[in-house]
What we know:
Elements: H1 4-18, E1 24-26, H2 33-39, E2 44-50, E3 53-58, E4 62-67, E5 73-78, E6 88-90, E7 130-135, E8 139-144, E9 148-153, H3 154-162, H4 175-183, H5 189-192, H6 204-214, H7 227-247, H8 262-267, E10 281-282, E11 285-286, E12 323-327, E13 330-334
Antiparallel strand pairs: 1-7, 2-3, 3-4, 4-9, 5-6, 5-8, 7-8, 10-11, 12-13
Helix pairs in contact: 1-7, 4-7, 6-7
Amino acid sequence: MPEGHTVHRLARTFDSLYAGQVLRVSSPQGRFADGAAVLTGRRLVASEAWGKQLFLGFEGDLWLRTHLGLYGAWTFAGAPDAPEVAHAIGAPRKRIGERETNPVVGPVETQASAGSTDGAWAAPEPRGQVRVRLLGDHAVADLTGPTACEVITTEEKKAVEARLGPDPIRDDGDVGAFVARVGRSRVTIGQQLMDQAVVAGVGNIYRAEALFRAGVDPLRPGRDVSAETVRAIWDDLVTLMRDGTAQGAIVTTRPADRPTGKAGRERGYDPDEGSDENKPVVDGRRRTRQNTDGLWDAVPSEEAFYVYHRDGLPCRVCGTPVLTKELAGRNLFWCPTCQT
């Protein structure tokens, strides 16, 4: 499931492509025909993200609320003069265990009108089961496979937001509410970080990595973690998730702890080690891909995480094998030495 930074990137993409435009809304698949009929011909006036929820605001006090869930994705195509955006944001073309990977970020597709004599741009035909199609002046966006897709009012939007915890990427994120919620519960902090009512937008990767960076055992009850430590976890999530929004990839390791850094060289790391059968073969070896892999200045994915999907491999800091177990239906990764 895409984590919160992905949805914030989506909101920025929609703002860049469509802000202020009157959109033609349709449902090629047919399952959203009634909602499309309500929205088509209206102007897009807002694009917002809260955790994993995307809200597209239309004139007339209406919002298109979507949640990508496990399999949803937005795919974009545009005219040559459209702003550059990611081709697809959301679920991967290939799912690898719990790790979501996206196509490499690049410009939108461009296409001249198939039947045009003047070479004017026309949107390509929908691919797959497109629930919603948004067509603007210079670009088209297709939504496939969402968990949620509905038209709501502003009051209904507020009701959805009231059920969500604070979002570390948003400027109005309430750290006090997060600290208070964690501190009054017996539920493990590892489980609480995945509860969207506690903190919105954190997924399995940010959960595992933030707890490692804080040195906190994920199985410790929330009320047994000091308020100072919980606040520090929030501050770290703010930095990490905003970086993810800006870069389009999750990188949580500090330079010195990467295999190519000083600590990695001292420990004799082999970037090819590991035997996760769920990882794809890339460049002749199995590893988890980031959607920025292949860019010259990107941190390679095998160096990007401390513990996520590194079960059985040595901790980058202390060398102890990373552990994994299932917690509330998701795989949890941690170092038993560094996270005491």
